[in-house]
Amino acid sequence: MGPAAGGHVYSPALTDFVVMVDQTSQMFVTGPDVIKTVTGEDVTMEDLGGAHTHMVKSGVAHYVASGEQDALDYVKDLLSYLPSNNQAAAPRMLPTDPITGGIEDSLTAEDLELDTLIPDSANQPYDMHEVIRRILDDDEFLEVQAERAGNIVVGFGRVDGRSVGIVANQPTVFAGCLDIDASEKAARFVRTCDAFNVPIITLVDVPGFLPGTDQEYNGIIRRARETPLRLRGGHRRQDHRHHPQGLRRRLRRDGLQAHGRRCQPGLAHRPDRRHGRERCRRLRLPQTPARGRQERRRRRRPAPATATGIRRHPRQPLRRRRTRLRRRRHPPSHTRGQIVAALRLLERKMVTLPPKKHGNIPL
Predict the structure, then answer these.
(1) Could you say which of 11, 112, 265, 299 is the most buried, measured as most Cβ atoms within 10 Å of its Cβ?
(2) pTM, entire model
(3) What percent of the chain shows pLDDT beyond 70?
């Protein structure tokens, strides 16, 4: 609620959440006078370390309050979602609209609105905030860092009275692509939820990483690898199929690509991987129609049967395992019910981690 300079700025920087008041809170290591003396730059205290500067540019602030009372109210709401320590359970409220029977019997008018709110086309954007509010209890969503990295949305809410963290792509900003700021914003939020054992709900609609030299030069490889779901490259960046501690439900299309097929014609339609004619050219074989037909027949040939009667594909030994991981699809209106059922199922789950030291995160 006031200025902090020099070494004093590291005290709030070490906290989990930083709440700043507009026009009265400033943080900087070296003040405007020192900067003008050393570099000759003329900058004000507000432009150098004001609330909006640390929200939009540096990412230090998590909320910009309009006044002191607004800051206190936000902190009070924030603490209502978090436990007092990492061994205690988060505060739980009585749900106003509990799901007692089947999912179809408990559908509300807001649940049915999701069927028309989420488009079937991958090229049609929609506001993820509207989806989030229809999933959470009483349409209450406490967003964190709302003015920074708008292509991803993080915050707290309640489902069936339980405190949950929300991580969702925002299709209206960069089509939901991940960039450096969005990756760091989401990773920081997920690590905070994990420290306090708050379950996380991820709403994924992401084409991939934002391409560009600016992202590459600023270290997207180093700064984005500590993403919240710790998944591997391309369209698996936010894919829960390989996450051992959660459940996955599918809302709509299967449209996740590394950067989208239209953005990568050279990779998605590489001819030497898809056509026998180009394969012959690569191997310096005669390019005849017969060889192309033989190649297509070989690709359509069924997999050989084993002694147990189970057909195994010679190139895909894990085909059966991948089949078991196939995502279940349900109507968007069933989303809240599916989430409630998943939270009830995982409520008593105990995860035992191997004894080890902390990892070396990319800094």
Answers:
(1) 112
(2) 0.75
(3) 71
